[in-house]
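Notes, Module 5: Reading structure tokens.

Key idea: the token line is not a picture. It is a compressed description, and you learn to read it the same way you learned to read a sequence, by spotting repeated patterns. We will look at two proteins. The first is printed below with its tokens.
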Amino acid sequence: MAKRLILAFTLTFGLLLLVFASVGPYGTVEAKTKISEPKIGLLDLTELKKVVPHFIALEQRAKANRRVLEEFTAQVLAEHQQQIRALSPEEYGRSRELAIATQSRIDQKRQELEESFRREEEAVLKELEAVVAHVAKKKKFDCILLKGGLQVGGEDVTEKVIKTWDKWGLTFWQRVKIFFGGKDPRPDPLAGASFSQEQ
């Protein structure tokens, strides 16, 4: 019985020693393979909206749309008041119909302005997405996150995106021409920012 106990103890101790010897100094088998950390870029969207002409033009467009809607609303309400004053006492029942028609005109104008703004904003965001994808590919980032809140690590790529977007869509020869003092051939997004009120 004592011989069996000593044999079992020796075999157990030998197996444990063999397991620890195969694992080595790392403590686990998995620790031998080194996992590379992802390369992350950070983008400050707030800074981008302050500097990039496309976003500045969008902000100016939004202000112009609000002004156009306020003026249109004032005009439609003035017309509505004239229509109400022109009603005879027998026609006061029509005042509700006139109010509904007036409100629908204002809502339709608001919807038109919002739709045109949404299309412009969508085009700018699509271009931003293409520029960010280009920067991510060029700098070999695994992903680019929006800056904000608490971050540990990551490289700020806001300036790189702004510089890349500034040259976005230009051919090599157009860049050479601009470099030697020529005018940018693309339409200036801020030139149309003093939007007319024809809408």
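Here is the second protein, with the sequence above and the tokens below, as before.
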Amino acid sequence: MKILVTGGAGYIGCVLVQELLNIGHEVIVYDNLRFGGIGLLGMFRYPKFSLLKADIRDSVLLKKAVTKTDVVVHLASIVGYPACKKEAQLATEVNVEATRLLVNMLAKEQFVLFGSTCSNYGAAVDVICTEEEPLNPVSLYGKTKTEAEKIIMNDCTATTYRFPTAFGLSPRLRLDLLINHFVYKALTDKYIVVYESHFLRSFIHVYDIVRSFVFGIENRDSMAGEVYNVGDESMNFSKKRICELIAKEINYYYYLAEIGKDIDVRNYFVSYNKIKALGYHTTIDMEIGIKELTSGIQAIKIVNPYSNADEF
């Protein structure tokens, strides 16, 4: 099968591309390499891999990539509250308008798997968020992904996945994700300040995200036209509980601040019964993921160029 992965050099994308190649698919990555292409270096030895370095807003090159593709995994986006706030116009152009551009190029028989977010639920307090829960995004990131969902689901043959907060190691590592960030700060600074520690979030390991895309490709006929929360109820945690689990692996101090707010407002409990009923289940729990991060982060060296001593 010929699969196009937009944003394939990213945190999720490079793990997904490796998995797709390993099981025999032909994979085209479409990515502008804004954050580099190091995560893809191991892919070039595969004869069924190719990279098209291009902007998702480029209609000519995007059309070239889409042609004769069986499946599109659409990951290209400006991800997260801070990045979208910093570059609001770019976030709208990439997350919304480029999604519309992509959809308008697709033939009816082409199948799209879209990576969306549970941030679309916003601050859904005292509610168990099923896929039928009205969306109430509070950040520009959530708003743009909600709009992209509507475009995808209304105008092409597609399945949308709403993912909780990702964590875990990837060749294109992100240390701004909550758990990855907490583990890194616990290792390097030996303390964390936590705002609104009682707030609930749901999490999923990056490899389980990848597995869900493979699952969707293999079950496209039964899943097309539907939206799924992807994860497991056992992975719903408060930020305080995350700190406690990290403390089992790392000797550090965490301070639960009573004054102050988390600028990225998310507080919800998510139900995953719909996709679990089809046979998809996550495989990596929080304890295993934290152990992985603790060991893996210690294997890399991160240097602050403005300090004589600050390195890890």
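Summary for the second protein:
- The chain is about 35% helix and 20% strand.
- The mean pLDDT is 91.
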